[in-house]
Amino acid sequence: xxxxxxxxxxxLALRYLYLLRGSWIRVVELAYWPTVQMILWGFITQYLAGHxxxxxQAAGLLLSGVLLWxxxxxxQLGLSVVFxxxxxxRNLGQLLISPLQPVELILSLMLVSLARTLIGVGVAVMLxxxxxxxxxxxxxxxxxxxxLNLLLLGWAIGLMVSALVLRYGMGAESIAWAxxxxxxxxxxxxxxxxxxxxxxxxxxxxxxxxxxxxxxxxVLLQQNFRLDYLLYALLLNGVYLAVGVSLxxxxxxxxxxxxxxxxxxx
Length: 266
Description:
By secondary structure, the protein is mainly alpha-helical. It has one domain (6-263). The protein has helices at residues 6-21, 24-49, 53-57, 61-88, 92-96, 102-132, 142-168, 175-183, 201-205, 208-222, 227-258. It starts with 5 loop residues before the first helix and ends in an 8-residue tail after the last helix.
């Protein structure tokens, strides 16, 4: 097995970034939905802030939730959608008969996902400052831990979804949109995990995102950084990411055995 090549990873990531740069519509789309959500929830937050003591103590609670959630959403889509473009163009088979290794493909997809997430969420974060006087960076250093954990979970889910599409065809593409929203009610984005029925809470705590949003509320409401939440999330993300990478590599291997890579766009 050849050693992993940073040059191949960088070249493939650069190719995806050139595709992004060559379409202004794609760039606008990256920032459009995070910005729309930020504006919508910003006005909701302003309204509720006048009617709730809790939200008066942390006026940016909902905005923080929606912006952090979009990190997870954008990182997952940033990986899976770029991979789907290879399937649509039937280019995956050509890539994998080159010296490119599947692990290098994964790393390049992660790099592009990071870039797309920074562009998409970054615009919304910056606009929240003049619109509402809300600065997500007020979370301080914990924000880096929250960002990393949500990014890792997004990559893990993106790899799992990509593996399913590679195995079952483009008919399963809608899973990329459905998967992330399916877990949203369990992640405690806008409410504590304790709000959920007791039988759902263990399932919620099994998701890294739940620890992130509980940690976010601890910082905003109690000015207390809960390191335990961060460490639990990192541990869980290690498991999820290992599963995602394994499923993706297995799907690539099985597609090679079936000889279906060249028909992967069907």
